[in-house]
Design a protein that fits this description.
The termini are far apart. With about 230 residues, the chain is mainly alpha-helical. It has 2 domains: about 160 residues, Ribonuclease iii, N-terminal Endonuclease Domain, Chain A; about 70 residues, Double Stranded RNA Binding Domain, CATH 3.30.160.
């Protein structure tokens, strides 16, 4: 594994001081269910951190690169750059799937959405790990290089209009309130968990969504919320 990680570091152009931190970015919760003796934890905390770092870096990147674009356009651009499909594609481009620690069941699972979710989460975990190990300047350089190659096509085509972003725009326009999400239920084993998430405007529950990750469930809740008559 050390040789593989060394090759990955060369490909990423990031040399980690803490190799365990890099390795942990690839540990899925399901792997620990089958290998409780494994010395490292799963990657969900790194994913949580990486999600926030990614949004901040991409937001600043767009703010500086497109000084004449309004907030709505920048919001849609950001959604096109950090949605599950794009992050999963970036993971595949970098070959991150080759370093994953998964349970046997997850390795055999052919469900496309579940696989996309794992790959997207892994990319966020890697960003979180690199941020802790190297700091924000290294992450900015790493992500800017990636998105410099992607942004011309994204900008021309706006590959993905995020339902969450659209719902947020409408909520702010109509009520001057930013919506928020809450996990209402978690069902199933760790390797095949289903989340039910509610989308709220202030204290009002607008809609619920289900999915194999919190992010997918949030998107489904936003889609259902957009279909409510008050937004038509």
């Amino acid at each position: 594994m050390k040789k593989e990680l060394t090759k990955l570091e060369k490909d990423l152009k990031i040399k980690f001081k803490n190799k365990d931190l890099l390795q942990q970015a690839f540990v899925h919760r399901s792997y620990l269910n089958e290998h409780p003796e494994f010395k490292l934890g799963h990657n969900e905390r790194l994913e949580f951190l990486g999600d926030a770092v990614l949004e901040l870096v991409v937001t600043e990147y767009l703010f500086k690169r497109f000084p004449d674009d309004q907030e709505g356009k920048l919001t849609n651009l950001r959604a096109s750059m950090v949605n599950t499909q794009m992050l999963a594609q970036l993971s595949e481009d970098l070959g991150l799937q080759n370093f994953l620690f998964l349970s046997r069941g997850e390795e055999k699972d052919q469900n496309k959405k579940a696989r996309e979710s794992i790959l997207a989460n892994t990319f966020e975990s890697l960003v979180g790990a690199a941020y802790l190990d190297q700091g924000i300047s290294v992450i900015k350089k790493f992500l800017e290089k990636i998105f410099d190659d992607k942004i011309p096509y994204i900008y021309e085509n706006l590959l993905y209009v995020d339902p969450k972003s659209r719902f947020q725009e409408l909520s702010q326009d109509v009520y001057s309130i930013t919506p928020h999400y809450k996990v209402l239920k978690e069902e199933g084993p760790d390797h095949d968990k289903i989340f039910t998430v509610g989308i709220y405007v202030d204290k009002d529950l607008i809609a619920k969504g289900k999915g194999g990750s919190k992010q997918i469930a949030q998107v489904e809740a936003a889609k259902k919320g957009l279909k409510k008559k008050k937004w038509q």
